[in-house]
Design goal:
Number of helices: 15
Strand content: under 5%
Structural class: mainly alpha
Order of helices and strands: HHHHHHHHHHHHHHH
Mean pLDDT: 80
Oligomer: single chain
Amino acid sequence: MNQFRNHPLYRKHNIDSAMNSLWEFYKNNFLVLFIVSFIMSLVIQYVAALIDIKDLQSVTDPMVMLEKLKVYIWPMITVSFVSLLFSTILHYYIIYKPVENDNNIFVSAVRSLKFFIPYLIIIILLAFAGSFAIVLGLFVFIVGVFFSALYVMTLYLFILPTMMIEGPNISNTISRTFKLAHRGFWSNIGWVAVFIIFLIVISVIFSAIILLPFSGSFLRTLTNPENVTNMVNYTENPVYIFLSAMVNALTFPLLPIFACILYFNCKAGEEEIQLIIPEKPEDEKVKVEDLYAKPYSDDHPDNPEKKIS
């Protein structure tokens, strides 16, 4: 862990320093982060284009719709797979580029692969647990759903930094993720909420900008819902796909950077506590036998049995 003490994101943060660190790291590594995210976005856009939404618009029978959705299950899985793979690569690059001289995006792509399968397994487990948490949240209506989703998102952000720094052991990653996420629980939840709101606002602004060249089709759709096919048509436009990929490339790197800030903040706080209250080594810990007087040897001058005799 000592090698990470010089990492630009490693420190005890407050919300202001967290956002400043995020911006500085993003700005200093913008080109690599943007290019990698742009390639990922183009791949996802291409695979998503294989899902023909227009084919589903005329379907009213739920059973028929489910049958049609089965055809698109592999494109959906591919989109998730590509997103998780590129997320793994970016996390590794963000964590190790500042502390390894030989690291670049190609080295990160290779070295990050050993973390991908454990990460995939944990994400599947988190998806099941998260679905259960959100269902439980339904019992306390909208607030419960939002809080459950926010909690699951907080856990998700800790997974890759914990795994890549502390080792790809699945059980250890899960236990450490829960431990770190619950250390300063409310501040972690609050930071994630602020970050998500910030990300949504930025995404909405950028999305509105790229819609300008297609504003005629978009406005006609709003005024006449029967023209919804027009909206589908412009989303298949190569210009729109290119601009949309650029927007995703601008915003996607923010997520792994923020995840690393969350982890390093909790880790720095954890080490700060250990410095204040250092853990005693095993041989210095008080044992039960230390509470009782040790018996004298037979030839010890203070042996009471020897004095009596």
